Amino acid sequence: MTTIGRRFPVVTRSGVHVLIGFAVVAVLMPVFFGGSPLFTWTTAAVWVLFAMSTSVLFGWTGLLSFGQAAFFGIGAYTMALIHENRPETPGLVMLLAAALVAAVVAAVFALFALRTSGAEFAILTLVLAQVLWLLTYRVSWLKGEDGFHGLFSVNIISNPLTSDLDLWYYTIAVVGFCVWLLWLLHRSTAGMAMRAVRDDPWRSAALGINVRRVQVCAFAVSAALSAVAGALLAQGQGVVSPGMLSFAISGEILVACLIGGMSRFGGPILGAIVLIWSQTLISNLLHDSSMFVGLLLLVIVIALPQGLVSLPGRVRNRRRASGPPSIPPAPTGSLADESVPDGSPVSAGDEEALR
Amino acid sequence: MSGSERSSMLSVRGLDGWYGSAQALFGVDLEVGVGEVVGLLGRNGAGKSSTFNAIMNLELRSSGEIFVAGRSVAKRTADQIARAGVAWVPEDRRIFSNLTVRENLDLARFACGDREPVGVDELLDSLPLLDKLINRKGNQLSGGEQQLVAIARALVPRPALLLLDEPTEGLAPLIVEGIADAIARLPELFDVTIVLAEQNLPFVTSLTSRVYVLETGRVVHAGPTADFAADAELQDRYLSVSVA
């Protein structure tokens, strides 16, 4: 990615490579997979979007949410309610409505919740998800434990989704588009502001960044795309139930982010795929798979605290360490020509250039 | 020319500050005129950084009056104060280590308000070293380079007032000279007023016309820098570190 970025800066700036990547995946998957495996890939694609949206909050802005399932569920229930009342509504319009509802709920919630920080904020997000989960039982038109079933007849520009292949193309197109939008956001000044707020809120404020506004916006964006993911899953699986708002879902998506790693843009994508496929494969082999999935994920997180995206770098470092000793050329200005009391490195060329 | 004879850029009156229940500032008064470079001297813990933190409304709770270019900023948030034209270069520089120098500079545009930001070309003309650094990440910079980037970043929104907190800390003497040269050019190039917190008296003497000396959160001396630099007894009282 770095090489591509250096050679073709316009490509990375505009995120064309992201779109191309998703287009290639969209075309290739049905060549190699069909039936149940393709359906699993469709589910994984939805979780990719869910993980990426969670990463906007957790990875980019540094806000830990234990209640991301709230917005996943809001998306699914919004879609289900629209489908029940106006089944002819195009699927993409349902996704847009889901995103808007979740963004509004998130923005209002964040305006109050962000008066706290850290663990208190995380607990408040958990409370939000639990309250919404309870509402699905208490409000009659949300249909309690049964939820909504039979949502399969979703129209995409007047044509209904009729097969797993249709569903795959539809899902990957929506996910690819949303991830592309996130790429543009990540590269924008607003995306940089999110990372700056995460790294140093005081410094960010002193630079004129309205920290609260950045956090609220990040929360709304994250919620909107989580809702799109929830609505997509509902459209694909045809079922919406209170389980979509459960703490287990909020926990799993955080685990997906941690498995993939959040130091790079694509880390959560990798994490979501590993999570969904490990759950699917292990449940095919073992009756009580949850514990083994948990153990596997625990091993990954412990062995690679920076996530799977850090693996290539680790391998490279290990190879370098086991190779013949060499004296690397000192990069300009990085230095160690002269040590200073606080340990800050000083460049030999500093003084010349400073003049 | 003293601050009172010029139109006022910074006026601080009766500034108290607390970290939790511990009081760090006691009735600090400062007057800085437009275009001045004024020093804030004192030992470690004297209250220099706390004064800046209080002006920026960061990290500590404060009370008192703070006026920038005649407008009160005492009840404003840090981002509003930044947009009002106050830039702060903290002691530890706080360069965003995962962002490139260009991205660090871009972030400073948030503080522009209605003002046109300083373009990269203009910054490069004034601070030529930046040219080599512009695509490097914050964590690939030396101490001197970080300081330069921190100053450049502070200048992007064309601040009226620049608060520099110990810019020489941890830097080798040759680098300090370079930083001093760069700072000396700033008022003319960027039309900015500077308050410079330091312990390094020769550095402050080379750049400022007046100094305030702080001790245990109080202003204990104010006057021309040359007078303070010539008074060994005052220096000994307020700047030297007792070993006994």
What do these coordinates show?
The complex is a heterodimer of chains A (355) and B (244). Chain A is mainly α. In chain A, 70% of the residues lie in helices and 2% in strands. Chain A has helices spanning 2-7, 9-14, 16-32, 35-60, 69-85, 91-113, 118-138, 164-187, 189-199, 201-206, 211-237, 247-260, 267-285, 290-303, 311-322, 350-354; strands at residues 148-149, 155-156, 159-160, 239-240. In chain A, strand 2 (155-156) and strand 3 (159-160) form a beta hairpin. In chain A, helix 4 packs parallel to helix 8 and helix 5 crosses helix 6 (91-113). Helix content of chain B is 34%, strand content 27%. Chain B is an alpha/beta fold and 244 residues long. Chain B has a 6-stranded mixed β-sheet, sandwiched between helices. A 4-stranded antiparallel β-sheet of chain B has the order 2-1-4-5, with helices on one face. The interface between A and B is large, with 37 and 52 residues.
Supply the key terms:
heterodimer, A: 355 residues, mainly alpha, two-stranded antiparallel ribbon, 70% helix, 2% strand, globular, B: alpha/beta, 6-stranded mixed sheet, 10 strands
* Helix segment tally of chain B: 10
| Spans where pLDDT lies below 50 across 5 or more residues of chain A | 327-355
For the residues shown, what is the average pLDDT of chain A?
84
Largest sheet of chain A: 2 strands, antiparallel
CATH topology of the domain at 3-94 and 162-238 in chain B: Rossmann fold
Alpha carbon gap, first and last residue of chain A: 37 Å
Structural class of chain A: mainly alpha
Which architecture name of the domain at 3-94 and 162-238 in chain B does CATH use?
A: 3-Layer(aba) Sandwich
Number of strands of chain B: 10
Shape descriptor of chain A reads globular
Strand content of chain A: under 5%
Helical residue percent of chain A? Answer: 55-70%
Largest interface: A-B, 37 and 52 residues
As a percent range, the share of strand residues of chain B is 25-35%
Topology pattern of chain A, helix = H, strand = E? HHHHHHHEEEHHHHEHHHHH
Text of the CATH class of the domain at 3-94 and 162-238 in chain B: Alpha Beta
The CATH superfamily of the domain at 3-94 and 162-238 in chain B bears the name P-loop containing nucleotide triphosphate hydrolases
- The first-to-last residue Cα distance of chain B is 40 Å
Number of helices of chain A: 16
Number of DSSP strand runs of chain A: 4
Strand neighbour order, sheet with most strands of chain A: 1-4
